Recover the amino acids of this structure.
């Protein structure tokens, strides 16, 4: 059997001290790139193993965080979480963490996935996306004192844990305000059915802006499932009302695309503003509310590493402001 | 100090045998869901640690595979790799593997990332995306005998290693054939500059179909960087040629969107077919060639686990056929 490969073997091979090898393994970002590359090459060439285990024993950290990758739906709003995921991976790397993915079709199966992940990879923590009222996932993690941060607010208990979110209401209020400033009063809203945290928040911003301008929002509100077909159908319904809207603010780009389809079919144009600034919006010239996803991802990593460094610190909350991106369709 | 938590402690707490605990850790898919949940709960509750290290020692596997997450470009074609990533995560889970992400701005930095990942997480293997001529990444991995499979062909040496790819030429040939069957002869091609494996492949299918119909493709070919603006500019140039095209096949949906912009601006319509069947194509009714990304991801996992189970097996190659999705714009 070949000689056992130790840190000393690696150090000798790479012509560095054992401390440098240890640094490359435990805190690679503090080692000069050329040296790091040389040491890593030695580690790979010599087949030095069990570093992860050794490091975990020394640091008590796996330096792994997990996040769910969303199933592909219509693909339009899916791009939001993909951009978040990219930002998360990039920022985590800069702090010496790696991102592990998992899938889950619903909350219950997501909790099963937590068990799988924690029992086999000894993860440091989770970034949980898409919170809703009475979220069983955060309850499960909190009960077991597993570090996590959510991208999305705990709608029932705003101070319950660390989270990062985007102020959706500020986004729809700004979109509505823009249309009011352009002379519109009857600004309709294509939203989701009442009851979801995110959906209610986006509706609240639109309502606030209309009420601020002295317009009664009640006859201009709608609630439907997300989707292009649903947006098209709801727009037809809105246009048939006693006081039809002269402009539209939407809770998603999918709904906005549906609205544009109906308007085109009816031979009319109204200004329409979407939400999420997806690639589809950019491609067709649809104005939309843009979430600062890279920033949100970076703050999630900040808050999570904060919890890992000091588990008994108070939870922290970060609410980011979205930006209205104006294009030729509104 | 508290009693050390061992497999026996977990077994006692979950009222199962030690073998069952071991199975939950090493092969969770063979354990009944209720039992698995109970054992995992015990592991998490008792804080049983170092499983990963223990398992690695027993099985020689970390059960982790790594894949790069692409930087966000215009976001239109980005959705292709996002859908691939989702499929990969889902299939890997079913085989007992997890997917770890990394980012890299170019090939050189990607190789640096391999070093980081291998020296700190002891990964089982890599899924490499976006191969090109003389790819330094696969050479680096092959030299070190690190298991990998590529999504994309090694264009210079088709049998060099295991890979999965989609037959792009078959896709553009089918798209061109569809337009020829509809009565077109001068089918133009919006492609990328010659020299890239993927781009040349997509061009080859279009050429083959035109030549098969007795049409000389030379005056109908273009090469430009990917992007909406580039597609718009190239279409203007094509329309000004001696024999302008009466229909267009494109190497990407971004180029196709640019073509549609120019055509709309010029007040004309021609059938246009894109490539990749992105959400944008679906949203605006653009016909496009669709890659079977879920299937491609699943085959990548198959081939990689095959290599892990029998490292000295011959490399295997899988070429999948794309599908032409027809919509109202062509």
């Amino acid at each position: 059997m070949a000689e056992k490969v130790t840190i000393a073997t690696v150090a000798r091979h790479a012509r560095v001290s054992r401390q440098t090898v240890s640094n490359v393994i435990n805190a690679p970002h503090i080692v000069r790139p050329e040296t790091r590359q040389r040491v890593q090459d030695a580690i790979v060439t010599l087949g030095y193993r069990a570093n992860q285990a050794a490091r975990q024993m020394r640091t008590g950290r796996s330096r792994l965080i997990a996040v769910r990758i969303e199933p592909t739906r219509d693909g339009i709003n899916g791009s939001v979480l993909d951009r978040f995921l990219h930002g998360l991976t990039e920022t985590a790397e800069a702090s010496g963490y790696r991102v592990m993915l998992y899938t889950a079709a619903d909350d219950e199966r997501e909790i099963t996935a937590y068990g799988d992940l924690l029992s086999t990879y000894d993860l440091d923590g989770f970034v949980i996306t898409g919170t809703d009222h009475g979220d069983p996932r955060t309850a499960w993690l909190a009960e077991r004192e597993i570090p996590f941060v959510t991208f999305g607010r705990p709608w029932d208990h705003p101070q319950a844990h660390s989270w990062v979110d985007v102020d959706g209401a500020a986004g729809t209020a700004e979109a509505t305000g823009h249309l009011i400033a352009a002379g519109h009063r009857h600004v309709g809203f294509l939203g989701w059915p009442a009851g979801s945290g995110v959906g209610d928040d986006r509706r609240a911003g639109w309502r606030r802006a209309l009420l601020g301008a002295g317009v009664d929002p009640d006859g201009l509100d709608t609630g439907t499932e997300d989707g292009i077909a649903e947006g098209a159908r709801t727009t037809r319904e809105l246009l048939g009302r006693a006081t039809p809207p002269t402009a539209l603010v939407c809770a998603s780009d999918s709904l906005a695309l549906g609205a544009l389809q109906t308007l085109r079919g009816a031979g009319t144009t109204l200004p329409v503003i979407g939400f999420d600034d997806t690639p589809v919006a950019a491609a067709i010239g649809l104005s939309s509310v843009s979430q600062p996803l890279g920033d949100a991802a970076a703050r999630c990593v900040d808050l999570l590493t904060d919890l890992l460094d000091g588990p008994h610190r108070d939870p922290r909350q970060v609410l980011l402001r979205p930006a209205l991106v104006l294009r030729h369709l509104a």
Chain B has three domains: 7-59, 64-165+293-319, 168-290.
